[in-house]
Specification:
Strand order of the largest sheet: 1-4-5-6-3
Number of helices: 3
CATH architecture: Roll
Structural class: alpha+beta
CATH topology: Thiol Ester Dehydrase, Chain A
Shape: globular
């Protein structure tokens, strides 16, 4: 069973023509773009988006991407991309699910990992910086308060 995240975000995408190949199926490399869009929404909800990362003195390069295709997305199809934060202590690990918007059928599962790199030294960090940990803690507290 895949680990579920306590913090998640969803985006909807209507598959555009320029993302598909000659048989109107989404080209496999474009799924990474969809993951990025969902990841950006998740980070915005955390209050620790790419601008905030840079302002805190860190960049977060993607160090691993995994995709598992179950069914193709097609031109004009409405899809939903859910991003779930599953690890944040030492790295950012996000699990994704791409689904058909109408039926909820799974199209793709994926995950990404990112590690913090100090902007001033260029050194990879083996623990997440305080700014991320504080952002996650604030979001978790807000979620608990709303339940």
């Amino acid at each position: 069973m895949r680990q579920r995240g306590k913090i998640s975000a969803e985006i909807d995408i209507l598959v555009p023509f320029y993302d598909v190949d000659s048989i109107q199926v989404v080209w496999h490399g474009n799924y990474v773009k969809y993951l990025e869009q969902a990841r950006c929404e998740l980070l915005n909800q955390l209050g620790y988006n790419y601008d905030a990362m840079r302002d805190s003195g860190y960049v977060w390069p993607v160090t691993d991407v995994r995709l598992r295709y179950a069914a193709p997305a097609r031109f004009g199809q409405a899809i939903c991309v859910r991003a779930e934060l599953v690890e944040w202590q030492n790295r950012l690990k996000i699990n994704y699910l791409i689904m058909d918007k109408a039926s909820g059928a799974r199209l793709t599962r994926a995950s990404t990992e990112q590690l913090a790199v100090c902007l001033s030294s260029g050194e990879m960090q083996w623990q997440s910086p305080p700014a991320l940990l504080e952002a996650v803690q604030r979001k978790l507290q807000a979620l608990e308060a709303s339940q």
